[in-house]
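Quick one: co-fold with MRU.
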Amino acid sequence: MRVDGTPMRTIWPVAGRRVGIIDQTRLPHEFVTLELTTMEAAAHAIRAMLVRGAPLIGATAAYGVALAVTADPSDAALARAIEVLGATRPTAINLRWALDRARRRLAELPPGERADAAWALAAEVADEDVGINAAIGRHGLELVKRARKGDKPVNILTHCNAGWLATVDIGTATAPIYAAHDAGIPVHVWVDETRPRNQGAGLTAWELGRHGVPHTVIVDNVGGHLMQHGMVDLCIVGTDRTTASGDVANKIGTYLKALAAHDNGVPFYVALPSPTIDWTLDDGVKEIPIEQRDGGEVSLVPGRLADGTIASVRVTPEGSPVANYGFDVTPARLVTGLITERGVASASREGLLGLFPEKRGA
Ligand code: MRU
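Sure, here it is.
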């Protein structure tokens, strides 16, 4: 992604063993970068959603371990970093994937060699994410081409932000969209606002706009109506965790979009980087832990006032209880296909194993 003409990732190492990030809680109103200097700061950035999106959470955790072992390379400090970072957000499996990888790589090294190895590993995780997303873009581009009717723009609906901001670069669900736009295929994106934190309205709309992709923000309940009226050719969403059988956890509300797509014969694809597959799980509805966040995210909506100040306004009565479920699970039977870096698979164990045969019997 280019920001003010310069290619930029969403996380980067800074000289002196610090880590640069974009504070996503300030978007779309302000573009602010800041530096993480401690493992605790990295954990806070994930927990408070300064960085978010499954792949970026994984990359931030890897850099968090690097910050930890730079300060203290002992076994105890490594174990504590993995525990603290691992407890930040429960649903995105990329977090555990990155921390398991760090543990395997670093635990066997003498403490004196751990810092260099941890920074190299974090860079590796980040670079891999970019390569994976580029490949998802290439495979997804074919689906966008297939969905085109005559010379009309392809209308794609997406939920939440599975874009550049949710990854190290490019995005997952947005990768086919950017690839199509860059290839001169006209696309128009319906952007679900994605309450309560409005990642669609605030983040997806912001990054699509910067890339010049035509889009329209809609409130969360509009998708079904649009599909009934033939105004959506294709849905592409991201995922925080997908089971070995193809059940997909993603931002709350994804399931309802998949139901509407199924009822209206609209293809529903999930962009799935392989680190987001949880090969240990089978039944997503029963087994994937669903994050519940602070109720203040439901009752207080932040925004920019007419005078330019950023403030939160209350939209519920004082004292009304609220519930804030962060994710839901879309059963595999509602998913048309999984767009991975190795190609498009059916949402099933056999489909995934066809692309990842090394996981057979694992
Ligand atoms: O709560 P968030 O903003 O971290 O949720 C993000 C999503 O649900 C994304 O769709 C998912 O992480 C995939 S990101 C490529």
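If it helps, The chain has a mean pLDDT of 97.
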